[in-house]
Automatic annotation (TrEMBL):
Region (Disordered): 1-31
Name assigned to this protein: Uncharacterized protein
Bias kind Basic and acidic residues: ranges: 1-14
Domain of life of the native organism: Bacteria
UniProt KW keywords: Plasmid
Length: 316
């Protein structure tokens, strides 16, 4: 059963430090035609309400499993905060008619959901409710002053986090892990704000190889982090076409990625970003080792980018 700690939302005029102004007889309005309370919905209640909501048809909107999974990931990681002002609404049948993604996420994360809950909400209210705007990682970076290339950089932050924390998981499975826009913003603040400093090199690499923008941006950041600005500049130049020798490793990588991009046409395939990142790293490491060729395929593990001078510095 749900627990209730407050019977209804506080009236604005009763909040400390605020008093009603103007003609109260003119501005006073009636409350909503349903009850709102602060509650914790148990897993059993959520599962039942979701099932009823699917059957009764009072929720006119579809749901996106990927979006719900992203919220579930945030909940599991402890990045979710209770008390979102958007009300979870139950229709007159007891089914979820608003806040479905949060409820699906809570069930997936196996956690109860605490927040404002509206009960017996008329279907007419939901049918004409503002669905709202989905916030993206690009929005999160825009709020932090990033002026351009935001979509690529937001996706690159996710890719970098996976590279740093999940190289033991095969890169072909990385696309199952989603991060919410607030999480991307936090990761940018805490770990990867330097991606904005390598944008031009990332654009250069993308232009020369036709790889995904996020793969180019993540690779450029890693090259500077692990190898320094000079090595990044040399690599970006080579991948952009500055290496005339077709036998050079960077030229081989450039040709291979360009050929693969041509075969798939203009259709963007962001699921390829981990693969392209791995291919670029493999090529650079092969060049560093003095090899004439490199191999990277669908079954290859994600390699680690590292250079001798840094390894020596870490050993000190």
């Amino acid at each position: 059963m749900s627990s209730k700690s407050q019977t209804e939302k506080p009236d604005r005029a009763s909040v400390d430090g605020m008093t009603p102004t103007g003609d109260t007889s003119t501005h006073q309005v009636e409350g909503p035609p349903y009850q709102v309370s602060w509650e914790t919905l148990s897993l059993a209640e959520l599962e039942s309400a979701l099932e009823i909501g699917t059957e009764c048809g009072c929720n006119p909107r579809g749901s996106r499993r990927g979006h719900a999974s992203g919220i579930a990931t945030a909940m599991t990681a402890g990045d979710w905060q209770s008390g979102i002002p958007d009300i979870v609404c139950l229709c007159t049948h007891g089914g979820i008619s608003n806040g479905r993604h949060r409820c699906l996420a809570a069930v997936e994360a196996r956690q109860p959901l605490t927040g404002w809950v509206g009960r017996d909400v008329p279907v007419e209210v939901i049918r004409y409710a503002d669905i709202g705007l989905k916030r993206t990682p690009a929005d999160a970076l825009a709020g932090r002053g990033v002026g351009s290339y935001r979509t690529a950089l937001g996706a690159a932050v996710r890719l970098l986090m996976l590279y740093d924390t999940q190289r033991d998981v095969h890169w072909s499975l990385w696309n199952r892990t989603r991060f919410t826009a607030p999480k991307i913003g936090d990761l940018f603040d805490q770990r990867y704000s330097g991606v904005v400093d390598t944008v031009e090199a990332g654009r250069q690499i993308e232009s020369g190889t036709n790889c995904c923008p996020s793969a180019a941006a993540a690779f450029a950041y890693l090259m500077r982090r692990e190898g320094g600005a000079e090595r990044l500049a040399e690599t970006a130049y080579g991948l952009a076409g500055g290496t005339p020798d077709v036998r050079d490793i960077l030229a081989q990588a450039r040709t291979r990625l360009s050929r693969e991009a041509k075969h798939r046409g203009r259709k963007a395939d962001h699921n390829r970003a981990p693969y392209e990142l791995g291919l670029l790293i493999t090529a650079v490491m092969a060049k560093e080792a003095g090899k004439a060729r490199f191999t990277f395929g669908e079954n290859s593990p994600m390699p680690k980018l590292g250079f001798a001078e840094q390894l020596a510095a870490e050993a000190v």
